[in-house]
């Protein structure tokens, strides 16, 4: 009996040992597959190996090249941010003052904001864009929602139009801020098209082409319009041209989506720059508008923005708000507070608001002075071509007409960083670097002249009156 028990125990022990050996072999074999850990040398194929490299985002690539450049003459004309005459980033004095007040405000905490944002901020942002006495505000048919800056407003707006309003086609100006096309595609529009905006020969607005292309757009298409200080061309439609655009859009039942990233930077006057949006509302359009405080309050990294929806009947607002709530909830849940608290402090106090408006005017005047300085220097150096468009253009940017090969030479040989489209940020010019920039442009253009067809307008005749399209 005892013997049989012993034999049984022995057998059990052997089985256990085999089990241990089996598990040991299993672990050894499987761990071989993961030997790529910290000190593994024969790495297996990564699950991420399917990922192909995406092209770099040009502006951020330029920032990196600029930062790595050790040349003391280097100039960064690529990034769309305001610079002082010392070439430094600018914190607006009113923002500095409000920031100190925020830090010392014992009532503030870091609780979540509501999904659609802070109510006071939303109201102030809406009033800034539309004007307090706007009929749509009085009739309570405007819905402003806080967004992650201008980009977030464009994205939430496009998501809403494509997913909730089932719009199929979106039109972006050609050229435009490079993110518009990408956002529209990602948002889910079935077709994303460009409408001609620029006449490269005359370096002005191709109004006739723009109108005729919009006149052929499928009914109900969404059209993204830059409210002021068009990026990258620095060229806005005149009021007469805006009226023509509104007329065509009305006749085709096109849906306007205004991108307002530069309110105040075009004319130096906050209200004046909002005129196109206000005009479209007056004309009875329902519309969307994306607002940003990155540029006009210098709040770039604080991501203060707003999406303003104007409806023709306030009864739809609760439904619209409920869908937007879901979109935002599933995307980033709720927006950040610091930047919008600053905006609220500036816009919510008359004294602060006046100081801010006068700072915007000063910033816009400095840009105008730099436009003049660059254009005059190029003329003085007898740089081939015409350079008056630099002065005629408005806002932060100048679409210089320089070609990709000029941009490449300026970057590689002169340490002047700019976009290959020929766009430069005029704010980055200073009284100290403008001469160097002009001389460098002069050199590259003399070596490789521009094909300046300045006496040929978009229709092929040499009529200089390009402001109208009176067919
Ligand atoms: C036309 C346009 N829209 C939107 C934006 C977005 O700006 P942000 O997201 O910094 O507010 C920019 C920024 O350069 C722009 O030029």
From TrEMBL:
PANTHER family (alphabetical): ASPARTATE AMINOTRANSFERASE, GLUTAMATE OXALOACETATE TRANSAMINASE 1, ISOFORM B
GO biological process: aspartate biosynthetic process
Lineage of the organism: Eukaryota, Metazoa, Ecdysozoa, Arthropoda, Hexapoda
Listed name of the protein: aspartate transaminase
A GO CC annotation given for this chain: cytosol
Residue segments, region Disordered: 448-471
Native organism: Drosophila lebanonensis (Fruit fly)
Single GO molecular function: pyridoxal phosphate binding
Compositional bias segments (type: Acidic residues): 450-471
Cofactor(s) it depends on: pyridoxal 5'-phosphate
Family classification: Belongs to the class-I pyridoxal-phosphate-dependent aminotransferase family.
Record note on quaternary structure: Homodimer.
EC numbers on record: 2.6.1.1
Highest taxon of the lineage: Eukaryota
A Pfam family this chain is assigned to: Aminotran_1_2
This protein's record includes keyword Kinase: no
Keywords from the UniProt entry: Aminotransferase, Pyridoxal phosphate, Transferase
Domain (Aminotransferase class I/classII large): residue spans on this chain: 73-441
Name of the top EC class for this enzyme: transferase
CDD domains reported in the protein's UniProt record: AAT_like (cd00609)
